[in-house]
Amino acid sequence: MSEHLYKYLRPEAFPTPFCAGCGHGILMNAILRAVDELQLDFNKIVFVSGIGCGAWIPSPHFAADTLHTLHGRPIAYATGVKLFNPDLKVIVISGDGDLAAIGGNHLIHAARRNIELTVICANNSIYGMTGGQVSPTTPKYAKTMTTAKGNPEEPFDLCKLTVACGARYVSRYTVYHIKPLINSIKKAMTTKGFAFVDVVSPCPTQFGRRNKQPTLYEMFNDLKARAIRYETAKGLKKDELTGKIIIGEFNE
Questions:
Q1: Over the stretch 201-228, which tens digit does the pLDDT of each residue have?
Q2: What CATH number matches the domain at 3-249, 3.40.630.30, 3.40.50.970, 3.10.129.10, 3.30.420.140?
Q3: DSSP 229
């Protein structure tokens, strides 16, 4: 992390709680770079998170107002903050299990109501902090602690879901695609309405070791190999998109 970004961090921010190879540290850096490049007033931002690995990104790291809330409820808390003080920029940062499972209804209704929130999903396709259970975004056939023989269910496409619910800005990038990710977060932070960024982040500890990708190098090569631009994906058939990670901006 660049030295000039340290001003956004609390003294107790180091060492981070993330496992070796976790992509959430890269995402944390991308968020702070977006804030810095936009020259946002850190004193007028409230970061809200739930429970899970992704929820540790803003709290206890960011030297700003942070709410570390109940599991699955960060969007509900964030809605209350925004309604009470509309002048604040309210940013939700949490994981796929937190936002799409127990918090799924909050996600779809906040998008439907077009509440001016920026929601960033640290999506590692698994419940990383609580032992590696299957999540709503776990790929089909992937192994987790609760799907030892492979996940039998199709995963949620959170971008298609939030677009269908009326979100003003929707995108997906991986932590491998760092420059487009930073630019996308900047767009989300300046959107007048509900904005959602799905960030695919590797979890070597819980996901990788169960799915023959035990090292970060292997997981990053996989992200690179499977990523496909949204514009390209529109011209392909469903079976041609199997296993691909569609990246880009989803709003037409």
A1: 999 999 999 999 888 899 999 999 999 9
A2: 3.40.50.970
A3: E
